[in-house]
TrEMBL record:
Name of the featured protein: LysR family transcriptional regulator
Alphabetical keyword list: DNA-binding, Transcription, Transcription regulation
Coiled-coil regions listed in the entry: none
Organism whose genome encodes this protein: Paenibacillus aceti
Family membership: Belongs to the LysR transcriptional regulatory family.
Domain HTH lysR-type: 1-58
Length: 302
């Protein structure tokens, strides 16, 4: 089908690499090459210059790329309209989520969605906020769910839920003896941080810089679980989402330290490219996401 050929052509054009395109499309590299050859034979023109390092479009290739994007968008729109007539939600969704959302909120939402729409094929990628933003921008994901502030051009960013963050420490940390701690008491302690690119790391960095805190030492982990374990072991303080530390606070392995006059909040947001054309499956997924956020707000959790 020519639509499949066009999808492969557009992916190779954007990735500028046959191997990366094959990986994204779950095809073999010879399979990708066959799709391109079929297009070139049908159109009677060479579309790409291929070298070991990268792929470059010919003049004909540039023309086809612009038209192919429009054709694929119209095809998706037509398929969505037909699905509406049939009242059956099908298709596939590739969702990307930052770690806090992907590990602590998304699994339950996906279970509910799959139960309601079993014919939709779901794929999930979890990474830090920066990684998810870049994948959405490159159209490797249909939808991104991220935490914190996103200013990347070419994206539609829609906050859907508030997240509360907490300053946490091991129960035997000296600051835990205080009913409320003044920010001035946070000098000269060790801090446990997420890696650069994480929304939680960006929030922590802003807080430390804003209050000009003098830090004894920092330890960096690339997962919230690693940060939690380090804090529980007594390595230092950390700022983490309430969603991340709920069980640890209940069990007593971590303790929250309230700060005088300060409450940490940030947005959870959906991100899509400005020119995205959402399928009915994605629209239903977003509807369920918003409904889930509304339910959590009524319970005082979002």
């Amino acid at each position: 089908m020519i639509v499949e050929n066009l999808k492969v052509f557009v992916t190779v054009s954007e990735q500028k690499n046959f191997s990366r395109a094959a990986e994204l499309l779950n095809l073999s590299q010879p399979g990708v090459s066959l799709h391109i050859r079929n297009l070139e034979n049908e159109l009677g023109a060479k579309l790409m210059h291929r070298s070991p390092k990268q792929v470059k479009l010919t003049e004909a290739g540039h023309i086809l790329y612009q038209k192919a994007k429009k054709i694929l968008a119209l095809y998706d729109e037509a398929r969505r309209d037909i699905q509406l007539l049939q009242d059956t939600v099908t298709g596939s969704i590739h969702v990307g989520a930052s770690f806090t959302i992907g590990e602590y909120l998304l699994p339950r939402l996906l279970a509910e969605f799959v139960a309601q729409y079993p014919q939709v094929e779901l794929q999930v990628t979890i990474g830090n906020t920066w990684e998810i933003v870049q994948k959405v921008r490159k159209q490797e994901l249909h939808l991104g769910l991220v935490e914190g502030t996103v200013t990347e051009p070419g994206l539609t960013i829609t906050p859907y839920m508030k997240d509360e963050l907490l300053l946490v420490a091991a129960p035997d940390h000296p600051l835990c003896e205080m009913r409320q701690a003044d920010v001035s008491k946070l000098h000269h302690w060790s801090w446990i941080l997420r890696e650069s690119g994480s929304g939680t790391r960006a929030f922590s960095d802003r807080f430390l810089q804003e209050h000009k805190l003098e830090i004894k030492r920092t330890y960096v982990f690339n997962s919230s679980q690693g940060v939690k374990e380090a804090v529980a072991a007594g390595l230092g303080l950390a700022i983490l989402s309430r969603w991340v530390v709920r069980k640890e606070l209940e069990s007593g392995s971590l303790q929250s330290i309230p700060l005088k006059g300060i409450k940490f909040t940030r947005d959870f947001s959906t991100i899509q490219t400005v020119d995205h054309s959402p399928s009915m499956a994605i629209e239903r997924f977003l509807q369920q996401l918003m409904e889930d956020a509304r339910r959590l707000r009524t319970r005082g959790l979002g």
